[in-house]
Queue: 3 jobs
Job 1
Amino acid sequence: MNFSWRRARSIAYKEYKHIRRDPFTLAVTLILPLLFVGLFGFVIDLDYKNLRVYVRDNDQTSVSRRFLQEVASSGYFKLLPVHGQLELERALMRNDSPALMIIRQGFGRNIRNAQPGQVQLLADGTDNVQAGIMGTYIQGALQQAAAIFAKENPDISSLSAPAGERIRSRFLFNPELNSRWFIVPALSTIIIGFLAIVLTALTVAKEWENGSMELLLSTPVRPAEIVLGKLMPYFLLTFVDVLVVFVLALYVFRIPFLGSFALYMTACGVYITGALALGLLISVVTRQQQAAIQFAFAAGLLPSFIFSGFIFPIENMPLFFQYFTALFPQRWFLLISRTVFLSDAAPAVLGGALLAIVAFAAVMILLAVHKFKTDVEP
Amino acid sequence: MNENEIVIRVKNLTVTFGTFRAVDNVSFEVYRGEIFGFLGANGAGKTTTMRTLCGILNPSGGKVEVGGKDVSSSTAVLKPRIGYMSQKFTLYPDLSVQENLRFAGSLYGMDEAQIDIRARKIKSFIGLPEHLSGPVGQLSGGVKQMAALAAALLHDPDFVFLDEPTAGTSPQTREAFWALIRRLAEQGKTIFVTTHYMDEAEYCGRIALMERGKMVAQGTPAELKKQFFPVKPLELSFSQPLIKQVRQALAEEGVASSVFGDCLRVRTADRAAFERATRPYQKGFSVYETEPTLEDVFLEAVSGGRGV
């Protein structure tokens, strides 16, 4: 196989001219990531703050008040006290709060006796994520209150005794569990991968549709030269996106970047090469712009959201799907992206993930070359 | 240079798409420096045959040789020697003429300086303005065709394949195009051209007639005329409005005729039948023998002599 760099460069230069003369593509490529990461970064915030919670304190002791103070000071809840059964029912009917908390009579006594204090939480189950998170928060506040109470009242012997074994969690790398820190690196993975696939998905199909492929095939140019030639300019274009999103993450969203910049940029380069090559493969196989763009949307969006771990944690998936997600580079790059942003992990930690995206890129390029049709048979 | 050297040899070529036979057992030979015309209606298999010759379509059966080499096994060697101008407009509409030529040339391994020298030569040969700025897509149809021809000739190929190069262009452009084609042949290039304009076929050295994937005749225009018209066709010029009646009468005798303006053309060797049919109307027209055109040949060949 006589691969000619000169011909590959000619294809690249021609492709560069197409891009330069297509202001729409250029605009979409540069503006879409800003819009996507910008909007989503601000809108998606999985942290709950100031949730309205009606509270009825049936205990009315210093212990229950101390507990409520603790709950309120967390910042997650805005407590709205209600008095009497009637008011409680009205509050319930107003339907303007996701939860209602009732402190049982005897709550203070129980705590003093080192028994579990009883709090009833009625949460709106239509938002199960929110309900679950609230339950956890309240549980935490309850423990906190008990601990503080024990400290403040060392005279009560029963409380000074260790309250059994307890798990104490400390969150490393993202101590406040700031969801934006978690989401923005992931968003950049998705948008850059998606753009890369869509950009190249049209290029070969377009040549088939407007007839220029016939001319190309009648010249000595080879599929590998066309594939690499088309990859080069789009690689540069997509890399501009990588830098734009990186700057956005660091300076607009103030995400810390603790890892190796060189490692991250290398990984980005490999990841977008794989995505661009997948786009080319789609284009090579469909040979039709309409079909290519549909496949590209599916290939760019579905795995990004479903199989990458962005929305659904991979550890919670059935075993088959845990292995299945390994096929998608988005999963690996997401891991790399989050790790490199929030920790200074050694490259060796990400060895497997890096290897996976390199393998994906290589396989996509080979497939695109292999599947390239060199005759015009319909 | 040997004028009688066979440079394109097609033997029992068959191309099928699924169950459809686009080209069915076609054989022919083309000599060096010849203008070989491929004639037929749309869908007759002309483009398919040409594409297999250019190596961009694989034959389902038979043998295709260009320049003494098998096309399917020697594509890499042959492609630089082949210039192909598709029926479709295959240049990039968003690039200028010069950019398109530079791109095409670079794929043949020419460097920029070589391309520019060659491009200037080709442009003046074709009569394409030296400086055409702006994207090709915005040029007129005739200029576009000229630019596409320039791209096909840029690398100085030995074999030039032109697929309906004059389709949809003005009579002036067609005239100019054929003048160019003749000059290319004079330079020793072998030209393989398809067309459905019968008058254009007169410019060809030899022609092949295609009909639904099959070759129905081949030879020089003169040979074909002689072969299909041992007796010359008749033309009837009317002094009275009798065309309809005469056609009717001829049809009843099994004699085909076609209307050309206010004349009637009759392609039949059966003079007795003609006499019988036209006797009642004899005073209304004058009759004379004419030279058969390739159009007559084509109609005769595809109808297998049954008349249309």
Note: Chain B has two domains: 6-225, 230-291.
Job 2
Amino acid sequence: MSVLLIAEHNNKEVKPFTLNAITAASQIDQDLHVLLIGSKADDVAKSLSEVPLVKKVLHIDHEIYENYIAENYTAAILKHADKYSHIICSANTFGKNLMPRVAALLDISQVSDIIKVISPDTFLRPIYAGNAFATVKSNDEKKCVTIRPTSFEAAETTGGSAEIEKIDAADQSENTKFINREEIKSDRPELGTARIVISGGRGLQSGENFKLITDVADKLNAAIGASRAAVDAGYITNEHQVGQTGKVVVPDLYIAVGISGAIQHLAGMKESKVIVAINKDGEAPIFSVADYGLEADLFEALPQFLEELNKLNTIQK
Amino acid sequence: MKILVAVKRVIDYNVQIRVKEDGSGVVTDNVKMSTNPPDDNAIEEAVKIKESGKATEIIAVTVGEEKAQETVRKALAVGADRGIHVKIDGTVEPLAVSKILKKIVEKENPDLVFMGKQAIDDDCNQTGQMLAAHLNWPQATFASKIEINDKSLQVTREVDEGLETIEVNTPAIITCDLRLNEPRYASLPNIMKAKKKPIEQINASDLGVDTNPRIEHIKIEEPPKRKAGIKVASVEELVQKLKNEAKVI
């Protein structure tokens, strides 16, 4: 039997985390099919077919899929699920919303947010905000699995030539209607995939002061993150939140500024390769995970940091 | 309108988790337990809707061991009218919880079911969506704003790209984000009053639902520890280390 991966996209492009999920799915079984549910998404089908790890692209094209609605996606997936041993997608807000609905209707106990494939039925997943790792074995005949994207490399996107098969749409749910999405456009790298992330916390004291973070982010070509406290206080919008209930990031460099380091925040960033903490409280728990800690007032340290970076002039854009 | 709110008892969010040496789980003896944080937001939202005159009754339900009742009692103290405790010992997977909750929904016929978007112990993020699937109801997950209309709700959801708004017809399942509202504390008089509110106990085994775990926990272990870092004395030193030692800039 093959594995079926559900693609996330915006009808124009594949979302990057789908490529990480493809890598994980191919470790479960190399006979990997990707299901693309969309409206006028032929370009997406073509780019998925060029991913060398993908053996086949199943494409459902119908106007009811112009916007992603879990109810409509679920019906489409169930129509084509029987031939597959595993149904897989990324464990971001897309997959978290979708997969349990699919799993329940297949009477499968879902395995959420895996960080390692041990065998086709056994996986490693973090629990308790990453304070424990559980090795779990699914005894369901068919499996529904979501993948923590940052724990797997993104798949290569060129060189493949998988077959694209058009398949049928399913019925539309009448009880859920898409209204709108406030997508904040930015030229910065995406938080989930950026090489460098600089995050601000309550220590910033206001939304205006986040400019200190933004200036450094511009210089380093970094994505901007935030602690839950900073988002709750309205300093910055929700899509920047890093942590147990926000996003998980694993950049090469994570710079935490004015963030004390509650376990819920650490859950979202402690796998980063190099961690820097700038905080005036020397006892702050963030220092326990930092490779380089600087005990300093961020309002003095950040402008200095920018100045030093400007002196280097070797930053890779 | 009747609102059912599902709550879960978990290890308190402030507790530093300790893994048992035999790899069988985490230490729960003598550890502070609380209501799962976003479940507090779910209760709060239901109470606010009732206070605005749009709901007539709030029922708090939990699934778990004897002590899980404490979370229902807490929900009663902040404004739920009555409680249901479905008693079951041992591990109950979200799939089983959703099947149990379906039975409760069929018995109580609520117009809305609220719960937290994820439990902070197993971090599964499944139960609400699964319940919606079993009932064939619409789902609005990760809600940070809810507007109630006549036969529908407009729900703003926190998604990776920012915010998304959908409209769902009732009956519907809503899973709540921590930013939906600011949960209130129970006042002492309300805690006293809550002691008199009824909690119905139901044995899970009487509901005719398969609750056997499908997932085996082979081993629970500590995550690899990060090795201790150093403190730098100045910004200059920090930049120098990042460039020459860590080589990340």
Note: DSSP finds eight helices and 16 strands in chain A.
Job 3
Amino acid sequence: MSTRLTTGGARIARNKPVTFTFNGKTLKGFEGDTLASALLANDQMLMGRSFKYHRPRGVVASGAEEPNALMNMGEGGKFEPNQRATTTELFDGLVAQSQNHWPSLEVDVGVVNNAMARFLPAGFYYKTFTFPKFAWKHVYEPIIRKSAGLGKAPTERDVDTYEHFYFFADVVVIGGGIAGLQAAKTAALSGAKVLIMEQDPAWGGRAVVDGGMLGEVPAADYVSALVAELEGMDNVTMRNRMMGAGVYDHGYVTGYERLRDHAPEMAGPRHRLWRIRAGQIITATGAIERPLSFAGNDVPGVMLAAALRDYLVMYGVSVGDRVVVVTNNDDAYRTAIAVKKAGLDVPVILDARAEGGGAIAGEARALGIRVENGKAIAKVTGGKRVKSVKICAQAGEGGVLEEIECDAVAMSGGFSPVVHLWSHCGGKLTWDEEHAMFRPDAERPPKGANGEGFVVPAGAANGVLDMGVGLADGDHAGRLAVEALGLKAADANLPAFDQAVEAPLAEVWMMPQGAGPKLRAKAWLDYQNDVKVSDVQLAAQEGYESVEHTKRYTTLGMATDQGKLSNINGLAVLSHALDKPIPATGTTTFRPPYTPISMGSIAGEARGDVFQPLRRTPMHDWHEANGAHWEPVGHWRRAYCYLQGEETPHEAVSREILATRKSLGLLDASTLGKLIVKGPDAGKFMDMMYTNMMSSLKPGKCRYGLMCSENGFLSDDGVVVRLEDESFLCHTTTGGAERIHAHMEEWLQTEWWDWEVYVTNVTEQWAQVGVVGPNSRKVLEKLGGVDVSKETLAFMEYTQGKLGAFDARIFRISFAGELSYEIAVPASQGAALWDALYEAGEEFGVTPYGTEAMHVMRAEKGFIMIGDETDGTIIPQDLGLNWAISKKKEDFLGKRAQKRAFMDNPERWQLVGLETTDGSVIPDGAYCVAEGDNANGQRNVQGRVTSTYYSPTLGKGIAMGLLHDGPNRMGEVVSFPGTDGKSYEAKVVSPVFYDPDGEKQNV
Amino acid sequence: MSELRSALAGAVFDGIAKVQEAGLCGMIAFRGDLSATKVKNAVTGVTGVDMPGQRGCNVGGDNGLAWMSPDELLIMVEHDKAELVLETLAKGLKNQHYMAENVSDARAVFTVTGKHAAEVIAKLAPVDMSTFSVGEIRRTRLAQVPAAFWMHGENAYTVVCFRSAADYMFGILSMAAQEGSEVGVFG
């Protein structure tokens, strides 16, 4: 029975009770508790079920490495699965539910798997579900999907907010234990700007729990003094509840700060992801205790020795009245002594080492604890909690010598330094025979741009487990870091300390060492994924030699804890099975983040309204208020059409087109790209960028131009206006503004750097409105000002001046094929211009139209659209645009490419118009089929549709497409099979369906 | 004169810092040889502030000069003076190759002020705000959009972005300035 003791518990505030619920049950704890300690205090040993076998599981650790005690936390918009009870601080009103069981934690029908366990060995996914073939999709996958995953998926949108924070420091220390604190102090005293982070709410790490003296003071007091000193330094930033999540190239570190997990009622973001640039990084991330692999080591009540000690010392929680300690090292004796001193019973310490422990063993014996050397656990009995341990000789095969009743087992298989952050960016490890652990290899650190290491390990993370030596190692790491930055290391005045004299650890990877198949099949390595010693041995037997392959085959270390407890034990078992030394087997790859971080913290501010920037034109609000049906164009939002009453978008588009062609339409064309090209060499530059001759354009005139990439493919198009002798305005497509600007700058900066030309993107300076239709001139004349008469401003001409109250640039250009003007005014005047045009146009039935009406009208005129008629493989010649390609110019971008044999080739598909014989609309993207099949048995094709619309003007379907030998096949009827089973027959015609002679735009 | 509208009509958010749309400002994108005496005289002449060095920004009242790249400056003047300044520049830079474009309306301008203003910026821009000071400019990004900013006083920052992104900028600045989100690391 686990319970709260009447005394002890350095972290809890006994005068501040807290109420929470677990599986609907209301329980009490104290402020300062973790969820795990509070559950134990309420005798809730059973905290979850394992993934594969649904075995009952209790908490095994007390920190980030916990594999078992994962919870569905919170409710509704604050729900989150797979949260570790060991790192969840208790707060009033906390709601937690255990996971992976049905119908309840106590009674789980899934546990039937237990009896089936021998049918579910390593790799069973690969072996079992392969036959019969159909069964995967219809039987196995649905069942596996149902049972897979530990926690539930949230059903509501996360109500919390998250943010990022950019920070820069000379030295970033990850880990606020005694080594990290000392490293920070040394670095700070040396003049470095220091950031130190600790994942836990409290500073000091194990030193605070385990005590001992540093100089004249107890370790806990030493830590308090150190923290106070650092807090007083201007060049030190201290953050607790912040985990070093990842170390990346160029000294980039991510810090995961949990701001509100312990106090969800407070305003502000829940998590903050720090994005840090560090000169040097010190990883003082501590070490993780390893379990021992004996049968029944997963029964609730079997716990890591140091964790059991944590619960006792920090939270005043007894895990059991009778605690059996089993170990291969001296550290676990501390647990036995702590339990005994708390007034509880330790029936026996089983030390697997034949020679037993060092001085501390004598201390334990002096307290009256029975110590058995060379002994081991053959088996733990009990289901949902420990009942007894059966004792055997470690050297044997598990013959039971004695059975001892107990309700908890504290195990220790030695410690593994947390080398994760050292390894994230390529730091290498070395095998330490003496302590049986991988520790950072100082000779092979992760290296920065200068070829020097940028990560320094410190303390237990560096394999230094002794407290005093760890403190000195922290100082050493601090010195190394500042010296690497070119600073002079300051003297930190370390206290005197006595290094504990310990007996050497013995490697124990299986308990007992000769355990037979039955015991091995109940000795767990990976608790979360239910991987046992027998599974890893089976993998080795089946030929898996690489640790990476074994990991994937057995799923060892692939659960949410990423093998923090199981990794080293698993690869040791594998090494033995392969008869290889452990370092030859190696470890799997350590990847960030250290423990899972919230998706919200990764997204930061990018959610809801600001998930992505939406670009708005100056007239956006008007569109919104007037029925705009939005379409994304790049990041812009443009009106696709404006819905009136109950009409459908299709009906709206038809209405907009007919009204525009009949009288007057308005288009917000502000998104159109506008680049200014200026300088003495501007004409020369324009001639290179465009296929047309632009240098001959007269000031005040407009010309439609094409731009190609150097590979000859059509890249962008638009109307070019010569503003002045040395200055051109280039209109680009909406999506092309930034791209073409960069394209121009690239050529200017890399090839023609000596040409006197500047380019500026002025797209957003101007609000631009297309005033389109037979009555467009009348509206402008009504506003008054600039003369826009046919005589003064002819088609493809430009003027500027006051249009009414507006500072306007007026271009007489037409994309719809009607009399039309584009009016550009400074963006601050855009909304007012739109209002003025709308008001003045009301007598003509003015109709704002959207992008779809624009598309249809240009298609009726046979004008191409970049992105419809082009796809990056199309050259202007394919589209019948030869007239826009200058033959006089010596060169332009794309000219040479267009001379290549496969470009200048009559076999290329050519642009034509397509008119369905029955007036229907050809489906978008349809291919034109030819006779016969190709080598793959697919129907031969001879062309495809590029644009297809219902034309309200003509009352039938029209399309443009690319067709083999198209222009020579006028009048021929070709077939376009749709995906709807129908075949669309279309006559090949000219792409200009409307007003082929251009009379309407030229009035 | 028609009615002039800035992107967000002076929208305000008050949190751990105050975020405010600053209305219309006169801005000219200037490109040219920044080492030429003629150029220096022309741009300092129209603004009355000193020529800035690399990543520098000199501001006095509505006027200012900001270094944008080795051959680009941002000239700041009153909104209704921009066209006039263009003419003055043209006179002063006859026969000099340069480019000056009025981009006043292509921009949205915000101020972020208050004790935690630097933290609000540091949540969005990859810039070391602990060392950022008056007289500097950063042409960088805030979250997902291009932006530039400088200090116009103690705990007071001016942020400039494209006008089309004004709504987004106001949104992210407001979120970064939300109540309870103090970081507490600067000063």
Note: Chain B touches chain A through 55 residues (CB under 8 Å).
